[in-house]
Amino acid sequence: MGRHSVPSHLIFQYAYWIEMLSHSSHQSSHPLQHQPIMSANGRNVTALNNYLQGHGGTTRAAYNESQAGAQNAPTWTIVCKIDQQPRGAGTHSSKSVAKDEASKRALEWLMANEA
User: Fold this and answer.
1) Which domain holds residue 12?
2) Which residues in the chain show pLDDT less than 50?
3) Domains of the chain: total
4) Which UniProt keywords apply (predicted)?
5) 38 neighbors 47 (Cβ within 8 angstroms)
6) Which helix (H) or strand (E) element contains residue 90?
């Protein structure tokens, strides 16, 4: 994971792109599609890893992180990639919360696009 300062306008552009992905034409009628996805302890990183293990086990989630803002009040953006493709992004003042949000969105994307 690399740590980079990214201008906030790029973060918002990327968040827009991720939002557009979530409204793609590949919508599913999966019953959990519109419900929040949370693992039992609230950790979506674990839930995503468990999902990937249960669906072949060879795919791993990779995360890219970037930081914007002042060092004493950073805004973190974490992008979750599955098979080297961005599938979820999260932005928050807490790095772990941003990663958890990115994992949640990636998991929602995977479930919505199941074959």
Assistant:
1) 8-25+32-112
2) 1-2, 6, 9, 23-42
3) 1
4) RNA-binding
5) yes
6) strand 85-92
Give the model confidence (pLDDT) of 73-95 as tens digits. 999 999 999 989 999 999 999 99
Positive or negative, the CA dihedral 35, 36, 37, 41 is negative
CATH classification of the domain holding 43 = 3.30.160.20
The two structure tokens encoding residue 90: 């999260």
Question: What length does the chain have?
Answer: 115
DSSP conformational letter for 5 = B
Greatest CA separation found in the chain?
A: 44
Residue 3 belongs to some domain of the structure: no
Tell me if residue 88 falls in helix, strand or coil.
strand
